[in-house]
Amino acid sequence: MSEHSSSNQAIIVVISLAGLIVLWAFAAWLGADPTVLPSPFEVWSLMLSETQSGELPKHLFATLRRVAFAFALAMFFGLIIGISMGLSAGLNRWFGAWLVVLLNIPALVVIVLCYLWIGLNEVAAITAVAFNKTAMVAVTIREGVHSLDPKLSEMARSFKLGVFARLRHIILPQIWPFVASSTRNGLAIIWKIVLVVEFLGRSDGVGFQIHLYFQLFETAYVLAYALSFVALMLALEYGVIGVIERRAVRWRNTVPA
Question: Which of 4, 18, 35, 88 is deepest in the core (most CB within 10 A)?
Answer without folding.
Answer: 88
